[in-house]
Design a protein that fits this description.
Strand 12, helix 12 and strand 13 form a beta-alpha-beta unit. The chain folds into two domains: 184 residues, Glycogen Phosphorylase B (Rossmann fold), CATH 3.40.50; 176 residues, Glycogen Phosphorylase B (Rossmann fold, 3-Layer(aba) Sandwich), CATH 3.40.50.2000. The chain is elongated, with a radius of gyration of 21 Å. It contains 15 helices and 13 strands. It is of the alpha/beta class and 374 residues long. Helix 4 packs across helix 5, helix 10 crosses helix 11 and helix 11 packs across helix 14.
Length: 374
């Protein structure tokens, strides 16, 4: 089958990463990607794999670029159009309908709707798409079980929603002593190492974690915490001022964007996800567990579903409970119980979220839509 994916952008995000993995690991179908915006992180990797990628450099209100999208879909003649993220679900599926394409699948990644924090256009589109869900898409992919309940309550057609969690290549993501040693070389002291990988964004709530770390430090517990992600560096005045204010300069290291996720997840002892809202199915949690690194997470999106009993789950926006869970984890490091926990974390990803399961689920979805009488 010829499948055309229309996505808002190809930047550094969970939806973009999942689309990249679908194109990489699905060998049964022909994939083409259209980005409504310009090139991003996954543009070159996709092209290196032989995937055709088109960029529209489009603003939401650009009628001329919308006409180009229609013309492009006529030229590509896909069997299925799969759209990703709210803006692409709306623009991409309307364009596909105008071309006469009936096999349309939406892919919803946004969860934990916070109307006070979400943009007005996003709220408007979500409500509009709930009405269009009766007529436009054949099926709707939801990446999070919690999101499934949310979108049902928002009015999306319940029978069209399909939960497909993200999948991970455990041949690549695995415990590696070489990567662990490379990371540990950067550290002079033998201390427990905590990690957090997230772009700087209010929903990631870095300040929640910093406050929790301050509470732990006040108990004379020593540690190092590496913060990695876009705009998470010494140039970020909000982060650096908070770290200085709480006297954590010796405990927190801001390393900015680092794409060597394998080295980070092997190098740290404990991964902490401190998000306050907006998560769907957080990849970094599963990636750390695949490398045998246990997690402390806030109960946002499907973080608790990923972790299960292999780690700790606490409420969002509560630095006291986050600190308590991290403290318990730090005291367990280097014990026999900790080794079992590390093995359990990887096993949980292997059983529930292997890449082959995700690809199989998408193939079943595509063939169901393709073979259904229009």
């Amino acid at each position: 089958m010829k499948i055309v994916h229309i996505i808002t952008s190809l930047g550094d995000g969970g939806a973009e990463h999942t689309l990249f993995k679908i194109c990489k690991y699905d060998t049964k179908n022909e994939h083409t990607v259209i980005s409504l915006r310009g090139p991003g992180k996954y543009s070159l990797p996709l092209r290196k794999m032989g995937i055709r990628v088109y960029f529209l450099n489009m603003s939401f209100y650009s009628f001329f670029k919308f006409l180009i999208l229609i013309k492009l879909l006529r030229f590509l003649k896909p069997d299925i159009v799969q759209t990703w993220l709210v803006h692409a679900d709306f623009i991409g599926s309307i364009a596909a309908k105008l071309v006469g394409i009936k096999n349309i699948i939406w892919n919803i990644r946004y969860s934990n709707l916070e109307y006070k924090k979400a943009k007005l256009l996003t709220i408007f589109l979500i409500r509009l798409l709930s009405k269009l869900s009766y007529f436009v898409p054949k099926l709707i992919v939801i990446v999070s079980k919690k999101a499934k309940k949310i979108y049902e309550s928002e009015g999306y057609v319940k029978k069209k929603l399909r939960f497909i969690p993200n999948g991970y290549d455990l041949k690549l993501l695995k415990p590696k002593d070489i990567e662990k040693k490379k990371f540990k070389k950067k550290i002079s002291k033998q201390l427990p190492i905590i990690g957090n990988v997230a772009r700087y964004d209010p929903k990631k709530d870095h300040l929640n974690l910093i406050k929790a770390l301050s509470l732990i430090r006040s108990k004379k517990i020593d540690f190092l915490c590496f913060f990695s992600g876009s705009k998470v560096n010494q140039n970020n005045s909000k982060l650096t001022s908070e770290i200085k204010k709480l006297k954590l300069e010796k405990n927190i290291i801001l390393i900015g964007q680092n794409d060597n996720i394998l080295q980070i997840m092997n190098g740290i002892d404990l991964y902490v996800q401190s998000s306050s809202y907006g998560e769907g199915f957080p990849n970094v949690v599963a990636e750390s567990m695949a490398c045998g690194t246990p997690c402390v997470v806030t109960d946002v999106g499907d973080a608790s579903l990923i972790v299960g009993k292999s780690g700790w789950v606490v409420p969002p926006n509560d630095p006291n409970k986050l600190a308590k869970a991290i403290e318990i984890a730090l005291k367990e490091i280097k014990t026999r119980r900790w080794n079992k926990r590390c093995n359990l974390a990887r096993l949980r990803i292997k059983i529930n979220f292997d890449i082959s399961k995700m690809i199989k689920s998408y193939n079943e979805l595509w063939y169901q839509v393709y073979n259904k009488k229009n």
